[in-house]
């Protein structure tokens, strides 16, 4: 099986965009299968930086991009992003971007509810991106969503809007937030139809034809296993399944089509938003990682919390996410540190645990158990072969492989596309 799925193995922003862009040179199709414009994937090609939220990262290499039904799609955000990348010289249109016709839409009432809820939670806020992701997924499972295909049926659209507004306006009223009127929303959706419908497609069939022709498909995950709605640090998670298993349901293919699963992990750890983070650092090392690693959210600009690599957590992500191999990114950010720590487990109420417990209180109480390793002299920045890495850096990578129980298949040593070391070819299976 020559397909590959790329998922985050920590709390997001591991460098999935860079890895997908690198792999896309050998793929025919790149598919987003979950999340929405809460994602921010950065690709650096020479002097040009692309920041993608909804567009599959293969657009930069001119590959066919697919937005699967598992995504929640904000059409305004999509068209703004298309304009942005066109201004950077990329060619994006219905000829090379297909959107599943059964994809649920994010409407202006979704971010409004997202923000009103966060404000009401006060200190206990999730720290969402405020993009309406959670409310849009709630409507999907609540069977109220307006989907791309509904734009072709004005009567359906009108009836669905009534149902949606009944639900949303009661909630907004309860939260003391302004309500939405029907007509402006309906007008906006009717105006959107001729722009969005040319992209609409029966994506499952496109992917089935690709399979029959022996084409290579790259599934691009957003967020990460520890933000998965079932397996992450609930409720401090996003509202979709981020594990590789969801690539099938979120694209409309069978599970056997997923192929090799790559888990992307930074050589340390970051998190943006609230929630437990046992190996978090509050000292100068944490600040150094944030500055040198430029750890500011691509979507919201918020500073990311930084900490040591948590091997217990990544091991858990490997097991749950179905990860066949890791891609370790940002090794260069650790250059020059005299010693490195790796979290290998937790102490919870006096008990030693190898995995993060499920309960909220227990997760918050988890104290990291660290092992210490020497750092390395010199620089790994921009290294393009394993032989260029200092011996201590190789030992660090090897120790991570042992602890997370998965091989490291690739390494990344700078934001640039070409500063990548491939130890194995993921497309080779
Ligand atoms: P994603 O959400 O997983 O695609 O990751 P983001 O793009 O949000 O965040 C990763 C950041 O790290 C981006 O700014 C990348 O350009 C940058 N990056 C990726 N790989 C490396 C690397 O190996 N070294 C350094 N220094 N930066 C990297
Ligand atoms: P990429 O694909 C990092 C986090 C938010 C918040 C939680 C819920 O770039 O790795 P949401 O808006 O999804 O309801 O927010 O999830 N979050 C991310 N953190 N990277 C992301 O995407 C994220 N997408 C959502 O910060 O804690
Ligand atoms: Mg990101």
Structure description:
This protein is of the alpha/beta class. The chain has three domains: 155 residues, 3-Layer(aba) Sandwich (Adenylosuccinate Synthetase, Chain A, domain 1); 88 residues, Orthogonal Bundle (Adenylosuccinate Synthetase, subunit A, domain 2), CATH 1.10.300; 164 residues, Adenylosuccinate Synthetase, Chain A, domain 3, CATH 3.90.170. The chain is built from twelve helices and 18 strands. Strands 7-6-5-2-8-1-9-13-17-18 form a ten-stranded mixed sheet, with helices on both faces. Strands 12, 14, 15 and 16 form a four-stranded mixed sheet that branches. The model has no long low-confidence stretch (mean pLDDT 97). The site of magnesium ion (MG) has 6 residues, from loops.
SSE diagram, text form:
Blueprint (H helix, E strand, L loop, with lengths): L3 E5 L7 H9 L4 E4 L8 E5 L2 E5 L11 E4 L7 H13 L9 E4 L8 H13 L11 H9 L12 H21 L7 H15 L3 E2 L1 H10 L4 E4 L25 H4 L10 E7 L2 E3 L12 H9 L12 E3 L1 E2 H11 L3 E5 L9 E10 L2 E3 L6 H6 L1 E8 L16 H14 L3 E5 L7 E3 L7
Parallel strand pairs: 1-8, 1-9, 2-5, 2-8, 5-6, 6-7, 9-13, 12-14, 13-17
Antiparallel strand pairs: 3-4, 10-11, 14-15, 14-16, 17-18
Helix pairs in contact: 3-4, 5-6
Question: Main attributes?
Answer:
single chain; 429 residues; alpha/beta; Adenylosuccinate Synthetase, Chain A, domain 1; Adenylosuccinate Synthetase, subunit A, domain 2; 10-stranded mixed sheet; 4-stranded mixed sheet; binds guanosine-5'-diphosphate; binds 6-O-phosphoryl inosine monophosphate; binds magnesium ion
